[in-house]
Write a structure and sequence with these properties.
Length: 412
């Protein structure tokens, strides 16, 4: 591989239900602190959700907050935090050579629901409909808001890939760098999902919305008593660069993207197909020149639905077997499902293992479902390894969109 084809992560910006910086987020994962709480939503009352609490005015004025969206605000916060973390002198960067590639899931629902509710208070008179509605609801809104906020004139767009979108935002950024379309990529995913009552109502009608007396114990992937998804908001954006550029400026490198893959089940609207998920993992391994036993940590997608968890476990067993050294964990057990942000946030939660050697556990795993048995599934307590060099991240979504990312610890 040519040196310029090696793509590295040099900056991380995030907001999660249990942290607003990588240090906070990682500390919560190792200490077993959930970010799930009770949340009031229109027409449904109290539900369980992962809610972010970040400083919206750190990088925006009140006027732009009023005009923009929650997803846009999350995207701006994460992108600004990422470039600050990267150490890039952004004021000297050619903004026409910067790209913004953000995965999103449900964008537009929030604003439409709000406007319909607003005009319902005025006998549905559309003269009360906001003239900001169209730019608020287009799919590229979060990425577009980043370009306006940061003066970026290069390409920006959304990657709509259901709950695989966060992984695919990162993959897209890496691909654009390899194609020499841009010199710096902001890549990741964002979600404002909890601000639409419809997502809660739909999961509830499917019998897939989590309930528990203790909100922090509601998200329980692989557990025999799991009862559904905890919907959450969040965001995570990376600065991605070509390795020679990062090395030339002495950048801190969090990891190198060495493998990725995406495919489709062509099977069902919602139910995953384990054969295609296994195929996606193998394809990512092949592209990275790796074998299953080379993976130190596999972060699973599992959302705590009955059938979804079982299907993914079948796929993992098909690829990794029930022997070997790979440790397996899950991050949704701490914060719920952050939808379009899930892939990026969940990968990020594991990246510090390159330095500290710890595999954060899966929370709330009291009694494993016999159909979810996995080898070396780390549960409830962190596990310290002698060395962590390679991490795989699974991220799957509705309509059978599968994505897998593999990141290696930086080595010259």
């Amino acid at each position: 591989m040519r040196p310029e084809d090696r793509i590295v992560i040099t900056g991380i910006g995030l907001t999660a239900p249990n942290g607003n910086t990588l240090a906070e987020f990682r500390k919560a994962l190792l200490e077993g602190r959930s970010g799930v709480t009770r949340f009031e939503t229109r027409f449904m009352g109290e539900v369980l959700a992962g809610v972010c609490d970040f400083d919206e005015l750190k990088y925006q004025k009140k006027k732009s907050l009023r005009r923009g969206t929650r997803a846009g605000s999350i995207a701006i916060y994460c992108s600004q935090e990422a470039v600050a973390d990267s150490g890039i002198a952004f004021d000297t960067v050619d903004k026409s050579r910067v790209g913004v590639y953000l995965g999103t899931t449900e964008h537009g629902n929030v604003e439409t629901e709000n406007e319909v509710y607003a005009i319902s208070q005025y006998d549905y008179d559309t003269k009360y409909w906001s003239h900001h509605h169209n730019p608020r609801t287009v799919a590229n809104n979060p990425a577009g808001e980043v370009t306006l906020n940061m003066g970026i004139t290069g390409p920006h767009y959304a990657i709509g890939a259901a709950c695989a979108a966060g992984n695919l935002g990162i993959i897209q950024g890496a691909q654009m760098l390899r194609l020499n379309e841009v010199d710096l990529a902001f890549a990741g995913g964002v979600s404002e999902s909890i601000h639409t009552f419809g997502i809660f109502a739909s999961f509830k009608s499917e019998g897939a919305l989590a309930e528990h007396a203790d909100p922090t114990r509601a998200s329980r992937p692989f557990d025999k008593n799991r009862n559904g998804i905890v919907c959450s908001e969040g965001g995570c954006v990376y600065t991605l660069e070509r390795l020679p550029d990062a090395e030339a400026r002495g950048a801190k490198i969090y990891g190198e993207i060495v493998g990725h893959a995406s495919n489709s089940d062509a099977f069902d609207y919602i139910l995953p197909e384990p054969g295609r998920q296994a195929e996606c993992m193998r394809l990512a391994l092949d592209r990275a020149g790796l074998k299953p036993e080379d993976i130190d940590i596999l972060n699973t997608h599992a959302t705590a639905t009955q059938l979804g968890d079982i299907q993914e476990c079948k796929a993992v067993r098909e690829v990794f077997g029930m022997e070997g050294r790979t440790r397996i964990n899950n991050t949704k057990s701490y914060m719920g499902h952050t939808m379009g942000a899930a892939g990026a946030l969940e990968l990020t939660g594991n990246l510090p293992a390159f330095e500290d050697g710890y595999v954060h556990p899966t929370l709330n795993l009291d009694e494993i479902d016999p159909e979810c048995q996995l080898n070396n599934l780390v549960a409830n307590t962190p596990e310290l390894l002698d060395n962590v060099s390679i991490i795989m991240n699974n991220s799957f979504g509705m309509f059978g969109i599968n994505s897998v990312l593999i990141v290696r610890k930086y080595q010259k």
